[in-house]
TrEMBL record:
One of its GO terms (biological process) is monocarboxylic acid metabolic process. Keywords: Oxidoreductase. The keyword Oxidoreductase applies. SUPFAM superfamilies: NAD(P)-binding Rossmann-fold domains (SSF51735). NCBIfam families: PRK12826.1-2. SMART domains: PKS_KR. This is 3-oxoacyl-ACP reductase FabG. InterPro entries: KR_dom, NAD(P)-bd_dom_sf, Sc_DH/Rdtase_CS, SDR, SDR_fam.
Length: 233
């Protein structure tokens, strides 16, 4: 579609699948990650999303090469799991900074060009734990829940300018992040998943591509679970 697409955390896992999928449909893709790795054909920018200067420099480089960002996918995320009583203040703050503050500042930066163009798509990668909570993930669940309020506020503020903001909410997905869980944790999560298996990164990417597509122009402020039914109740 030849749009300018910016994806955070495109070096591996879900973000890489998202980047590959946009590339496959002919979009111009830039990714930001700390390693600067990513799929061939994308503009691979090195940067830490919690560093405002690095994000600004990467944004500028993406826009110089591809034009104003038309689709922002905020995907970069980390976990620092522990029970809240044992969680260090730094582990709480790092997770909030990476998973919530960075997406908000990225969206703010992307909105500049989107407002001018009177169109834009913002897709935030949330998590099924946002609404359910998860033992050991108070920091992560709080950050992911925050993304919902962020997306819905952006949806209200800029809907009239042709900009949508939505959250894709993956369940357990086969990436490096999921491989940090032990067998018992995986079994427990899959027992609550009607489809009975993890998602592939591609299945998450497919939902992101839909929300960024012209077919989703009237969908904004939604949380789209891609979790094999795990969040049904
Ligand atoms: P991975 O750990 O496999 O990949 C994380 C990506 O984020 C990497 O590309 C990493 O790149 C990047 N990243 C992390 N921190 C930063 C940072 N500070 N600055 C720039 N880039 C950063 O995770 P997944 O692919 O599994 O997760 C992607 C998203 O999906 C996350 O938001 C996660 O919370 C969410 N999610 C994942 C689930 C799962 O089961 N896997 C379930 C639900 C949600 P680099 O290391 O090069 O910086």
């Amino acid at each position: 579609m030849n749009r300018s697409v910016l994806i955070t955390g495109g070096s591996r896992g879900i973000g890489r699948a998202i980047a590959e999928s946009f590339l496959a449909q002919g979009d111009k893709v830039a990714t930001i990650s700390r390693t600067g790795d990513g799929p061939e054909g994308a503009l691979l920018l090195k940067g830490d999303v919690i560093d405002a200067e690095q994000v600004d420099a990467a944004f500028k480089e993406a826009e110089d090469s591809h034009g104003p960002v038309e689709v922002l996918v905020s995907n970069a995320g980390i976990t620092r799991d522990n029970l809240l009583t044992l969680m260090s203040p730094d582990d709480f703050r790092d997770v909030i900074d990476t998973n919530l503050t960075a997406p908000a500042l990225l969206a703010k930066r992307a909105l500049r060009g989107m407002m001018k163009a009177r169109k834009g798509r913002i897709v935030l990668i949330g998590s099924a734990v946002a609404l359910a909570g998860e033992a050991g993930q108070a920091n992560y669940a709080a950050a992911k829940a925050g993304l919902i309020g962020l997306a819905r506020s952006v949806a209200r503020e800029y809907g009239r300018r042709g900009i949508t903001a939505n959250v894709v909410s993956p369940g357990l997905t086969a990436t490096d992040m999921a491989s940090e869980l032990n067998e018992a944790q995986v079994e427990k999560l899959l027992a609550k998943t009607p489809v009975g298996r993890m998602a592939t990164p591609q299945e998450i990417a497919d939902a992101v591509l839909f929300l960024a597509s012209p077919a989703a122009a009237y969908i904004t402020g939604v949380v789209l679970p891609v979790d094999g039914g795990a969040s049904m109740h």
